[in-house]
Design a protein that fits this description.
single chain, Ribosomal Protein S5, domain 2, 2 domains, elongated
Length: 505
C-alpha cells in the first residue's frame, strides 16, 4: 500500500508552488526524518508535530517516520508544513481515514495542538484556484484572507483535533468571514491642505494621470513632503485584480492585517535614507520582497534623496525600467513585481538653506550635492520640479484650494483615455510606453519637433530623456482631452526637465 500524502505549498517570491507531503511509517527504531530540501524551521517541525499530536488526544507512533516533501528540488521554508505533516502521520497510522489529496493544507502547530496563522496564504489560495483544487485548509485567522479568492472552498480551523473532525465528516466547517478593507488614514491627507505651490500641484496631477516618476527640489518647509504624501489621494483606486495583487505581496511579506483585511488602497512606502540595498530592492535567504515591491502599484517616496547611499540609488535603475526585480541565490531565483511611482524630494543644497538668496553654499557645492543623483537615474525620472520658498502671502491666504477629490476626477478621466488607447496591450499608463508605442501614439507635429530638438541641444537631453518628455506631453494632452499632441503640450513637458541643465556639456 503506498504511503499517504497531503498537498501543501511552498513560497517562491510571491508565487506559491504546490508541494506533496508524503509520510511513511515503518517498523524500526524510533526516528523522524524529513527530506526534500527543508530549512531549519521545517526540520524542527518534528518536535511541534509530536507534541501537538499527543496533546490533541491521538497516539504518536513509536516507529520510524520518513517525511518527503516533493518536488525535492524546491526549497521549503517556514512552519506552514506542520499541519500537513501531522495529518499525514495520522493518516499513515490509521487514526484518520479521509481523502486528503483534494485539499491543500497549510498551518503552524503549537505544542497544545492549536493552529497558528502563517504568511502567504493569499498566494497559496491563488495557486489553488489556478490548479483547480477542491479546497484549502488554513488557520482560522487566515480564512478570510484566503476567501478573497473567489471560486475556492476555504476551511478555517483552530486546532488539530478540529481539523481531523472536519476532514473525516464528524464536524461541519465554520464559514470563513468575508474579507474586509484595511484601515487607512490616507483620506485624512487632502491636496487642499497645501498652501501655494501651484506649479508643484500641477506636476503632481500630471504624475498621477500618467504614472510618472517625480522629483521635487526645494528649500526645507516648502511643501515637498506634503505634496508627496498626497499623491496617493489623487491616484485612481485599484481594481479588484490589483487589490488581490497588492494584498498577495503584503501577505507573503507577513504585513497583511489579521482577520482577512485586504489592502484596497494604493500603497505608500517611505523608507529612511539609511536603508540598505536588500531592504530597498529585496534579498536575503530566502529572498524577501523589498520596499520597491511593497510599493507595487503604489508610491515609493524617498525623502532627502541625495542622502541615500550611491549604490542604493543606482540599484533603483533596473526596477524603474523593467517594473520587476529578479533575485538570484544559490537555491534558485525569485521574481518580485516592482511597478511603482517613484517620488523623490531633495533640498537644493547640503545645508538646507531657506532660500537661494540666503544660501551659504557656493554654486559648486550646490551642484555637487545634487550631482549625487546620477544622470542615468535622473533620466528615469520624468518630472523635475523646482519649488520656491513659500511667501507669507501664501501662508496667510484664506481662499480654499482645490481638494483631492476634484483632481482625482480629472486623473481618472485621463487614465480612462489611456486604457482605451492601450486596449489589447499590457500597458496601464503612459509612463509604461516603449519606443514602439511612442512612435504609434506620440507623433508630435513639426513645430513640437523643433521644440524638442532645441531642448535636446540646450538642455543636453539624452534619447531616454527625449522619450520621457514625449510621455509627459501625452499625459498633458490626455488631461486636456486632446487626441493629438500639440506644441504647447511638449513645451510644458520640457519645463519639467530642469535638472538636466546641470549635466549639459
Amino acid at each position: 500500500m503506498p504511503p499517504p500524502w497531503v498537498l501543501s505549498a511552498a513560497l517562491r517570491g510571491i508565487q506559491a508552488t504546490l508541494v506533496r507531503v508524503e509520510v511513511d511509517v515503518a517498523p524500526g527504531l524510533p526516528a523522524f526524518t524529513t527530506v526534500g530540501l527543508p530549512d531549519s524551521a521545517v526540520r524542527e517541525s518534528r518536535e511541534r508535530v509530536r507534541s501537538a499530536i499527543r496533546n490533541s488526544g491521538f497516539t504518536f507512533p513509536g516507529d520510524r517516520i520518513t517525511v518527503n516533501l516533493a518536488p525535492a528540488d524546491v526549497r521549503k521554508e517556514g512552519a506552514a508544513f506542520d499541519l500537513p505533516i501531522a495529518l499525514g502521520i495520522l493518516a499513515a497510522t490509521g487514526a484518520m481515514k479521509a481523502r486528503l489529496g483534494s485539499f491543500v493544507v497549510v498551518g503552524e502547530l503549537a505544542l497544545d495542538g492549536q493552529i497558528r496563522p502563517v504568511p502567504g496564504v493569499l498566494a497559496v489560495a491563488v495557486a489553488c484556484r489556478r490548479r483547480e483544487m477542491a479546497g484549502l485548509v488554513v488557520p482560522r485567522d487566515n480564512a478570510a484572507e484566503a476567501a478573497a479568492v473567489s471560486g475556492l472552498r476555504v476551511v478555517g480551523t483552530t486546532t488539530l483535533a478540529e481539523t481531523v473532525a472536519i476532514l473525516t465528516g464528524q464536524a461541519e466547517p465554520v464559514a470563513p468571514p468575508a474579507p474586509t478593507a484595511a484601515e487607512d488614514h490616507a483620506e485624512d491627507l487632502d491636496l487642499a491642505d497645501v498652501r501655494g505651490q501651484a506649479h508643484g500641484k500641477r506636476a503632481l496631477e500630471i504624475a498621477a494621470a500618467g504614472g510618472h516618476n517625480l522629483l521635487l527640489v526645494g528649500p526645507p518647509g516648502g511643501g515637498k513632503t506634503m505634496l508627496a504624501r498626497r499623491l496617493a489621494s489623487i491616484l485612481p483606486p485599484p481594481s479588484a485584480d490589483e487589490v488581490l495583487e497588492i494584498s498577495t505581496i503584503w501577505s507573503v511579506a507577513g504585513l497583511l492585517p489579521r482577520r482577512g483585511q485586504l489592502i484596497d488602497r494604493r500603497p505608500f512606502r517611505a523608507p529612511h535614507h539609511t536603508i540598505s540595498v536588500p531592504g530597498l530592492i529585496g534579498g536575503g535567504t530566502p529572498p524577501h520582497p523589498g520596499e520597491v515591491t511593497l510599493a507595487h502599484l503604489g508610491v515609493l517616496f524617498m525623502d532627502e534623496l541625495p542622502e541615500f547611499q550611491q549604490h542604493v540609488l543606482e540599484s533603483l535603475r533596473q526596477p524603474i525600467e523593467d517594473g520587476r526585480v529578479v533575485i538570484t541565490r544559490a537555491s534558485g531565483r525569485a521574481h518580485f513585481p516592482a511597478r511603482f511611482q517613484l517620488v523623490g524630494a531633495a533640498n537644493p543644497c547640503r545645508r538646507g538653506c531657506p532660500s537661494l538668496d540666503r544660501c551659504l553654499c557656493t554654486p559648486a557645492e550646490r551642484q555637487r550635492y545634487l550631482g549625487r543623483l546620477s544622470r542615468p537615474l535622473l533620466d528615469r525620472i520624468d518630472l523635475h520640479v523646482e519649488l520656491p520658498a513659500l511667501a507669507a502671502v501664501d501662508l496667510q491666504a484664506a481662499a480654499a484650494t482645490e481638494p483631492s477629490a476634484s483632481v482625482r476626477a480629472r486623473v481618472i478621466d485621463a487614465r480612462a483615455r489611456q486604457r482605451a488607447r492601450f486596449a489589447g496591450t499590457r500597458l496601464r499608463a503612459n509612463a509604461e510606453m516603449t519606443s514602439r508605442h511612442l512612435c504609434r501614439f506620440c507623433s508630435p507635429p513639426p513645430d513640437a519637433q523643433r521644440l524638442l530638438a532645441a531642448a535636446m541641444d540646450r538642455l543636453g537631453l539624452s534619447a531616454r530623456g527625449h522619450d520621457r518628455v514625449l510621455k509627459v506631453a501625452r499625459t498633458i494632452a490626455d488631461l486636456a482631452g486632446a487626441e493629438t499632441l500639440a506644441a504647447e503640450h511638449c513645451a510644458e513637458a520640457i519645463q519639467y526637465r530642469g535638472l538636466d541643465r546641470q549635466w549639459r556639456g
